[in-house]
Design brief:
single chain, 82 residues, mainly alpha, globular
């Protein structure tokens, strides 16, 4: 763990105390535009191509979860990016 707690540290610790695992998906804005992306607002990402990209990103991990012995109890989204 990092020395300085993140902004969601209370939430993360509550999951860890109940022995729940956490999985973090890739950052869709980074994988869509690459490392040299410009700072953009939600409106810039509000188009069909970006939504398709996000859906495609979810397919592989969701298929792996459904085929594994893990049980998914909750999908959580922390809305701090577009």
């Amino acid at each position: 763990m990092a020395e300085v707690g993140g902004i969601f540290s209370n939430t993360v610790f509550s999951y860890l105390e109940t022995e729940c695992g956490l999985f973090q998906w890739l950052y869709p804005e980074l994988s869509y535009l690459g490392m040299n992306m410009w700072k953009m607002t939600k409106e810039y990402y509000d188009h069909a191509n970006f939504r398709i990209h996000c859906r495609e990103m979810l397919k592989c991990p969701l298929i792996q979860f459904t085929k594994s012995e893990y049980q998914t109890h909750q999908v959580r989204n922390f809305r701090i990016t577009p």
